[in-house]
Amino acid sequence: MSQEAILDQQYWEQRYRQQQTGWDVGAITPPLKAYVDQLPTKDLKILIPGGGNGYEAEYLHQQGFTQVYLLDIAAAPLQNFRERVPTFPAEHLLQEDFYTLSQSSFDLVIEQTFFCALPRSLRGAYARQMFEILKPAGKLAGVLFSEEFTAPGPPFGGRSAEYQAYFEPYFKFLHFEPCYNSVKPRQGKELFIELERRERPQFIA
Ligand SMILES: C[S@@+](CC[C@H](N)C(=O)[O-])C[C@H]1O[C@@H](n2cnc3c(N)ncnc32)[C@H](O)[C@@H]1O
């Protein structure tokens, strides 16, 4: 079976059911907390795609952000989240495929271990879909792995030059550098990114 064929909803539901969730650190991570803590207003429309158990959504909610959306293709983590954070608006929990998401006009999308969970063949489409769902000048911010892994994925690693090629047509690069405050197991292995959506795609011939 090909890599792409198995990374569907069923695959992820099973990972949660079998508690094979090594990516789950149980809390918002320091780079994302530091980023959230400097956001200027609480009314930004924010999406956390492939957000799993949703610790970023929980933190944002606790801090008084009112337009936070947690998206995952799997039902299990959203159910966990609902039980853990009962005051979070149920209509902001989206069990959908990121690639066919109907909501748009986000001010900010937060990335953590979602990009690396997707088949490599969908990376270009990830950048394009981020462009589609963000407002002009909206931001994509978070962390990406900065090295290749020897073990078969997910997670799938990568290098910054490869990533730049996906994002360059759609985004200006505000931050795209080694992350200094990663959680311990990911230290030296992450890039911190903050990308600003272009008004329109810019393809260099
Ligand atoms: C490696 S986990 C990361 C979860 C979370 N970001 C974290 O750091 O704990 C990847 C998540 O992406 C979700 N996912 C995979 N493909 C997806 C898709 N096409 N649309 C939405 N969610 C997806 C999975 O169900 C899973 O919860």
TrEMBL record:
Q: SUPFAM superfamilies of this UniProt entry? A: S-adenosyl-L-methionine-dependent methyltransferases (SSF53335)
* A biological process from GO: methylation
* InterPro entries registered for this protein in UniProt: SAM-dependent_MTases_sf (IPR029063), TPMT (IPR008854)
Q: Which GO terms describe its molecular function?
A: S-adenosylmethionine-dependent methyltransferase activity
Key words of the record: Methyltransferase, Phosphoprotein, S-adenosyl-L-methionine, Transferase
Q: What is this protein called?
A: SAM-dependent methlyltransferase
